TrEMBL record:
Residues 23-260 form the ABC transmembrane type-2 domain. The keyword Transport applies. It is found in: Cell membrane; Membrane. The chain crosses the membrane at residues 24-47, 59-81, 102-127, 139-163, 170-189, 239-257. Its main location: membrane. This is Transport permease protein. InterPro entries: ABC2_TM, ABC2_TM_bact-type, ABC_2_transport, Nod_factor_ABC_transporter. It comes from Asanoa iriomotensis. Keywords: Antibiotic resistance, Cell membrane, Membrane, Transmembrane, Transmembrane helix, Transport.
Length: 263
């Protein structure tokens, strides 16, 4: 069997394990959906010069948060758990290349992330009258932002899986940077252009801000651009930043991944 076929077989095992843990399934999908519903209900009004409401502006940002949650957080916790309970050590003794294990994990988070995005977009359409991308070009923008975002956050999640010392501490260790990045990236605030300059500059270093901006460019009309940091969607810069984080995440994976826990 090839590495890809072994990875696909491992992905099937990962998916079955994921769906059997009902509490993890509920909380994985519920977090961004509940936040979107609550925050979207609190924010009201239409932005001047546009037909976009505050709740509609929030939906693409929550899509980015959902991508980061199911890739960075869940993937990091899953790897930390596999390392702590000895799963990784046992798999290391099997005739399965390490890349096949990582392919299985990546395919798992891709499948879960796609479903999460569908649910968030559905909530946006039903509750907040969000419109789907209106042209093939906008769908293409959504696709490449989603692809680069999943790869970047997934690789960072693999690398971050080395941070928790035990499986019990994994959720706390990985959720803290996720929540902090959500705030400094303007995920829970509308409009982003009204954030303090130092917050904008700090958030611009990380991929979450650029994912949210890319998704807004796909779902929202150009009339909302005055509410952004600059009056442009900056697709070129978005692609460069996300690609840079993909490369940096790969380097971190290669240097930090371990098959057994410390000590």
């Amino acid at each position: 069997m090839t590495v890809v076929s072994l990875g696909a077989a491992r992905a099937g095992i990962e998916l079955r394990q994921f769906w059997r843990e009902r509490d993890a399934v509920v909380f994985t999908f519920a977090l961004p959906i509940v936040l979107l519903t609550l925050l979207g209900s609190l924010f009201s009004g239409v932005y001047e010069g546009s037909t976009v409401t505050s709740a509609q502006y929030l939906v693409p940002s929550m899509i980015a948060a959902g991508v980061a949650s199911t890739t960075f957080v869940n993937l990091g916790i899953g790897i930390a758990t596999d390392r702590d309970d000895g799963t990784l050590k046992r798999l290391r003794g099997l005739p399965m290349p390490p890349l096949a294990y990582l392919i299985g994990k990546v395919l798992l988070v891709v499948a879960v992330t796609v479903l999460e995005v569908v649910l968030i977009v559905g909530i946006g359409i039903v509750l907040f009258d969000l419109s789907l991308p209106s042209s093939p070009a906008r769908w293409l923008t959504f696709a490449w932002v989603f692809g680069l975002g999943v790869v970047a956050c997934g690789l960072l999640g693999v690398a971050a899986g080395a941070l928790p010392r035990t499986a019990r501490s994994a959720a706390a260790v990985l959720n803290l940077p996720y929540v902090v990045l959500g705030f400094i990236s303007g995920i829970y605030y509308t409009p982003v252009g009204a954030l303090p300059d130092w917050v904008i500059q700090l958030g611009s270093v990380f991929p979450l801000k650029w994912m949210a901006q890319g998704f807004r460019s796909a779902f929202l009309p150009d009339s909302i651009l005055p509410q952004e940091v600059v009056p442009s969607w900056e697709h070129g810069r978005t692609a460069l930043v996300l690609a840079a984080w993909c490369i940096g995440g790969l380097v971190l994976c290669l240097t930090t991944f371990r098959w057994s826990r410390r000590g």
